[in-house]
Amino acid sequence: MKKYKKIWRSVFRVSMPFVVVSVLLFVLPFDKRFGSAFVKDNCDAHATLLHDRIFHNDKPVDIAFFGTSHTKDAVSDYWLEDALRDKGIDMHVMNFGYCRLGRNMPYLLLKECLRTKKPKYIVLEVTEKENRDGHMDFGYMADSKELFTPVLIFNDNLIQDLFKGLVVRFEAIKQKWLGQYNEPPKRTDDYGHSADWTVAGEEEMQYQKENKMKNYKRSKGFSRWFYNQYSFNYIDKTIALANEHGIKVLFLYLPEYACLDVPEEIDFYKKRGPVLLPPDSLYQIPEHWKDVKHMNDKGAGALASWIADELEGVIKQ
Length: 317
Hints:
CATH class: Alpha Beta
CATH topology: Rossmann fold
CATH superfamily: SGNH hydrolase
Strand content: 5-15%
Strand order of the largest sheet: 2-1-3-4-5
Number of helices: 14
Mean pLDDT: 94
Distance between the termini: 75 Å
Helix content: 40-55%
Order of helices and strands: HHHEHHEHEHHHHHEHEHH
CATH architecture: 3-Layer(aba) Sandwich
Largest sheet: 5 strands, parallel
Radius of gyration: 22 Å
Number of strands: 5
Low-confidence stretches: none
Structural class: alpha/beta
């Protein structure tokens, strides 16, 4: 027994400095711009652009789109702004799309956006099915409160996010103290859309068309319910945050090429806001895609005109 007590005392002495330092790192103020710059290798350093659009750009945001690279590529905020203006609607549009899946990222970006902007509408991307996991960069970009008060139900990213939060805080202090931090220049971008006129190869698109639905497996039963809970809870958190600020919430279906006509969870979305379902004349045209997952600028231009028509009805109702 004495032997085990001695071992535990040794473990305690060794671990206490680490615990104390970890607590301090999470308690001390966190430079969120450092966090955005830290993930520069993901999404073409888009996190810094989004951070600076929120905190270092005075242009308002009236309509904000949140989602993955599907949103980033498909929603041309500047063309949509022009299309709305042609209809007599003068609103500032911003695309906050950020690469990779995870419903906690749109929630985090909306929360940050509301610190400086007052959007009237937000549009949340939906794809064919919900993703069960959180965003890979959430731990690097979230403040301590969000890291320690996440959605817990079926959250298998919890430890990973806390570890990433610890890493980025340690790196911020280390690089600044040692003079190693090369802060990226402030981004002055007014928009978040990524322009790309690339057209997908004919063989790639044909293969997708022939095999997409053949190999598609619909989620069903208990596993479908189980794996949706994390995403559903973050969607509801996002909507609750929007409601607190009097913001109307819409959903926009942005699937792959040769996709399902409607997302699997459309009933869930419809209970929470209008769902914009672009027609096949937009989504089933191979020339509108740069690859089987992402639209190009030809597709984004056509989609902007269609979204403007849909938003006109919502805004003027």
